[in-house]
TrEMBL record:
Positions of the Vitamin K epoxide reductase domain: 57-197
Presence of keyword Disulfide bond: yes
Protein name: Vitamin K epoxide reductase domain-containing protein
Gene Ontology CC terms, in alphabetical order: membrane
Localisation per UniProt entry: Membrane
Organism taxonomic ancestry: Eukaryota, Viridiplantae, Streptophyta, Embryophyta, Tracheophyta
Annotated Gene3D superfamilies: Glutaredoxin (3.40.30.10), VKOR domain (1.20.1440.130)
Pfam families: VKOR
Entries under InterPro entries matching the protein: Thioredoxin-like_sf, VKOR, VKOR/LTO1, VKOR_sf
Amino acid sequence: MASISVALAVSRPPLSRIAARFPPCDQRAVRVWRIRCRAEPSSQGEPEPPLEPSLWGIPTSTWSAGLGALGFLETGYLTYLKFSGAEAFCPVGGASCSDVLNSDYSSVFGLPLPLFGMLVYGSVTLLSLQQSGKNVLSGLGDTDARFILLATTTSMATASAYFLYILSTKFAGTTCSYCLFSAVLSFSLFFITLKEIGIEEIRNVVALQLVIAGVVITALTNTYSMSDSHLSGLNDLTLEPYETEITNQSSPMALSLAKHLRSIGAKMYGAFWCSHCNEQKQMFGREAAKILNYVECFPDGAGKGKKMALQCAAVGIEGFPTWVIKDKILSGEQNFEALAEASGYVDEDFRPS
């Protein structure tokens, strides 16, 4: 045993020789290396904030807020006209545009249709501002705002499609600039919302969109069911031509202007059943109305089986009354000032009425 212990003691190198071959570890270098290795994965693993969808370089939320504000202004103006009873300024369509805006289809559940439009456009504007980070609706999360915005724009697009169908079937041949503008806004907001949400999420809510569209169509159809039955009865009604008595007496100005209009070949196209045409004649008075070159577009009556006179159809009449003065077409009722300006009438005693 003693010999074995001596052998081991002799064969084992001293610790000082081992330490000399392996220098001591630099603890500072180790610490620095460990910190660096732990810091790099955390910086690379941080998720980048998602990019907001944009259209032509402008965020979709900004587009939605802007278009919603335009729709709010338009429907606010039409709502004011409804409650005040004033006539709308129709740049295109003239009297036919006013007829559409004042028809039975301009109300829903007994309230003016523009009022509902003002509410939904205002909601779209607020929801879009919420998504852009304005936080105008406290307590409403981004996910909830996107869901409500999708449901709102889906309802708007469905209603606009329904009203375009009504306009093309019940008011064939008429033009309503406000109706068309609102439809463009509604469809634009709908497609912008779809772009913002993305295809993957749309697949998850397409069933809900179909349900919303069905509810809107059903509600509108039930609301207008009584109007449809009333209008279908009018389509079968035949009106025989009649003449409305003009009770107002013509002023010297009306007589002078009527003679001037006739001398230059100006024509007034109208229909015997048109209230606006009768009001235009009342403005001129009995004597002056007889001087005007008036063209009756339904000399044989109106209704089922009756057609517009060829000379009126050739002009492309869209509503009544329509004035044709020196190749200028004026739609709707016109005051003396507008007729004088279009016809080049000059009178020192002229006072617009």
